[in-house]
Amino acid sequence: MKQPKAKAYTDEHAASGIDTAFPEIETWPNQFGAYEIEIGIPEFTSVCPKTGLPDSGTIIVTYIPDELCLELKSFKMYTLAYRNLGIFQENIVNCFVRDIVKATTPLSITVMGDFAARGGLTSRITASWQQSQEKKKRRAR
Predict the structure, then answer these.
(1) Could you give the residue numbers annotated as active site?
(2) Segments making up each domain of the chain, as ranges
(3) Taking 80 as the threshold, does the pLDDT of residue 60 lie above it?
């Protein structure tokens, strides 16, 4: 028996959700030098833009603040904006990096999304960003 041809992924699927106006991530002034902050989001949810099926997983944000730190209540509202949003898992992780860098300009950041199995497959996506070495040296003084 011939299998029906699956609908192809489109450019619209690929870009879905990345231009969404997410809630602003607020910040507060960092009072100390280089240290690492890790924020876990164990019940993260979104929607697959192609199938409409829910995606869930854990997102871990690890960053070294420069002058600003993430304010957690506003960050929670930011994460909740993904709940009913059609967006690919890879784009979620990269949007987190983009938006946190825009809000805080950390010395470095890594975001890891560990998504629950669908169809017997799991996905773990990691994206990172790092400030230039020159700015890091100035901050360390």
Answers:
(1) 48, 55
(2) 26-140
(3) yes
